[in-house]
Design a protein that fits this description.
alpha/beta; Urease, subunit C, domain 1; TIM Barrel; 15-stranded mixed β-sheet; 10-stranded mixed β-sheet; globular
């Protein structure tokens, strides 16, 4: 999931904040001009900045981020009216992956006009409204906050649609006795996937925007980033705990769901109509259903109305957050593998999930180890020497991590020793293919799994000296259009994978988003859900993430992605284990990932097994998860139709059960300001 650019969130394949370069000149020596500089902090390191010059009602903003080899870099000019509402807004520069961006907005004589990657339009206004900038910087949140503070009810309509709200959370004092600073904390919400937090100082200046894992903070106050992130965690945990109490349902000693057909994933079959009785966390019995059956007095019974009961789905490539848990559960994704995070945050989140104080899928963690370079990703542990890398393996092993994940800047020469140490500790070693090597070498070094299908294919597409620490690891996939899948290099890699039992976590959906997203259009993977989402997220998704110089470049990405799907089918036919991951955090992309496997030519029954029972067995949970049987954990999803006939049925869960707790996606989506996709099943007995 990726939010509108004015919200500070970390997530997934594109979990990086943007950037900028230069702005139109203003008279910085003029008495009225003021300057502000804020630094962007991720995992304790500065990865970018926001610099703003205010001269009366005119503001020039520079926004720059370079993290993980990528990040938007652009400039903005804003003009605001007497109430602080923008009446002009222009943006120019490059986006996350380096594509050119331009955006402009103007409010004149009561008519607002705009042009952005997502859309263009004009609307007459009879009341003040805020433009929801599509490619803006975090400075936009400050502009919104000031305008909303000046509004009587701290709420304003948004152009092109929606409503922004500002809520004061609390005041805090940070720093030492002699250097303390008083801040007002606000929650900005209404048009995005999750609310954002912003801190203003007592003069009303922009001090910070922050989340539980990152912060943008005034230059010179970087030491306060950690306490602000801790505050974000406290505030978000409080919100998550309230939602958990509201949205989790329990039914005493036992409950039942009747008139359902049960999917057996590996067999690819549906049962006759059945009734499933759950007691506590487990499935007590699975019985044949007959209309009019009487169950125990006092038992809550749901009518499945002939729908399908399917084991919970898996996302084998997530980056967990407090916000992502409800999205996953609502989508029927009850288990995930975390592939890189702030280690302290993840440990705390898993503790809360186990205790049941927040809602989310069960998490299997992978210990993230990156090499030190100018392109390093700011997750997990960054190692500067081979010994530090081995020490990192030991650190994760001591905390019972079952996987070690390697990233782009790792020195390939260290991988054999890391793999040996990982296997010695009883763990698997997985991950990206480090720069300046290829998948073949990493398999020979001991890899158990390749992360991202592009990481596998780049060894067939790039020269050995090309640097995959840069966006080339994604944009280079356009070269796949000319790839011969019958070539010796392709056959050699696939043979190595099969011989060494090396799996693939494809994250095909993220490649589709990159390669097929086009400005102003709904991408193929988003068509079934996007119009249900908040307007900010809708507009964020309607953009081009790569540079398209001409029609030939456009065709190369389209053909390159088609070749990616053909590679998936080749791997499936060869018997390579496919582990469904998304590098996202909503669950919608899990549905699309599985749908892409079918589009690649994998039969629907096999796709459903890949998404449910396969990961359960791979992770060692087969005795308790992956199928719906008496004695196993109650972990399943009620679908309105038959996914063996129409795979799209997985996109509309009516009821989700995890560890015996019941959730209704309809309720979750309403709480998240998302239009629901299906209604909850009726209750037919509750005496």
């Amino acid at each position: 999931m990726k939010p509108a650019k004015w919200a500070l969130m970390m997530t997934a394949a594109f979990a990086v904040l943007g950037a900028c370069s230069t702005s139109d000149e203003v008279d910085k020596d003029a008495p009225s001009a003021t300057m502000q500089s804020l630094n962007i902090i991720q995992n304790g390191e500065v990865v970018g900045y926001v610099k703003a010059t205010e001269n009366g009602d005119v503001m020039d903003v520079e926004y720059y981020v370079d993290s993980n080899g990528r990040g938007p870099k652009h400039t903005e000019r804003l003009v605001v009216d007497a109430q602080g509402v923008p009446i002009e807004w222009t943006i120019a520069g490059t986006s996350l992956m380096g594509a050119d961006i331009t955006e402009d907005f103007e409010l004149k004589d009561g008519v607002a006009t705009w042009n952005s990657q997502a859309d263009s339009g004009a609307v007459s206004l009879d009341a003040p409204a805020l433009y929801a900038v599509n490619d803006g910087s975090p400075w936009a949140n400050y502009i919104y906050a000031k305008a909303l503070l000046a509004d009587a009810d701290h709420s304003m309509p948004v152009i092109p649609s929606g409503q922004l709200r500002l809520e004061q959370i609390e005041g805090v004092t940070l720093g030492g006795a002699d250097t303390s600073i008083d801040l007002d904390i606000y929650l900005l919400s209404g048009i995005d996937m999750s609310p954002g937090l912003i801190a203003l100082d007592k003069d009303g200046a922009f001090f910070a925007e922050f989340s539980e894992s990152s912060a943008i903070i005034q230059d010179g106050h970087e030491d306060l980033a950690t306490p602000l992130m801790e505050l974000a965690r406290t505030l978000k945990v409080d919100r998550a705990e309230k939602l958990a109490k509201q949205l989790r349902h329990t039914y005493g000693a036992a409950f039942a769901i009747s008139n359902v057909r049960i999917l057996a994933p590996n067999a690819g079959t549906l049962s006759d109509p059945s009734t499933v009785i759950v007691r506590g966390t487990q499935i007590e019995t699975v019985e044949a259903y007959a209309a009019g059956d009487a169950l125990a007095d006092g038992m809550t019974v749901f009518d499945g109305q002939g729908g399908t009961l399917m084991p919970g789905m898996y996302d084998m490539h997530s980056h967990a957050s407090l916000d992502s848990g409800l999205y996953y559960i609502a989508a029927g994704v009850t288990s995930t593998r975390d592939m890189g995070n702030n280690n302290d945050f993840l440990a705390d989140l898993m503790t809360k999930l186990d205790a049941g104080t927040v809602v989310g899928p069960r998490i299997t963690p992978a210990g993230f180890i990156e090499g030190r370079s100018p392109f390093s990703a700011r997750y997990g542990i960054i190692a500067s020497t081979e010994q530090e890398a081995l020490d990192a393996v030991d650190w994760y092993a001591a905390r019972d991590y079952p996987f070690i994940k390697i990233y782009n800047s790792m020195n390939p020469a260290w991988v054999p020793a890391m793999a040996a140490r990982t296997h010695e500790k009883g763990m698997r070693i997985i991950g990206h293919v480090p720069a300046f090597t290829n998948a073949d070498n990493m398999i020979k070094a001991g890899y158990d799994e390749i992360t991202h299908i592009n990481q596998l294919m780049l060894g067939w597409l790039l020269a050995p000296d090309e640097d995959t620490r840069t966006p080339l690891r994604l944009t280079g996939m356009a070269r796949g259009a000319k790839l011969d899948l019958n070539s010796e290099k392709v056959r050699t890699t696939i043979s190595l994978m099969k011989e060494n039992d090396v799996g693939i976590d494809p994250t095909s959906v993220i490649l589709e988003r990159l390669m097929l997203s086009r400005a102003g259009a709904t991408a193929p993977g988003d068509v079934d859900y996007l119009d249900h989402m908040p307007i900010g997220y809708q507009r964020y998704r309607k953009r081009t993430f790569v540079t398209l110089e001409d029609d030939a470049a456009d065709r190369a990405y389209v053909e390159g992605f088609r070749k990616t799907l053909e590679t998936l089918k080749l791997l499936y036919d060869a018997g390579v284990r496919i582990l469904p991951g998304t590098d996202d955090g909503t669950g919608f992309t899990v549905h699309r990932e599985l749908e892409l496997y079918h589009e690649a030519g994998i039969p629907v029954p096999a796709v459903l097994a890949i998404g449910t029972q396969g990961p359960a067995e791979y992770l060692g949970y087969g005795a308790s998860l992956g199928t719906i049987e008496a004695g196993k954990l109650a972990d399943f999803v009620l679908l309105p139709g038959n996914p063996l006939v129409d795979l799209k049925a997985i996109k509309s869960p009516r009821m989700v059960v995890k560890n015996g707790d019941v959730y209704f996606p309809e309720e979750i989506y309403e709480a998240l300001a998302i239009q629901p996709f299906a209604s909850a099943p009726p209750m037919i007995q509750n005496e």
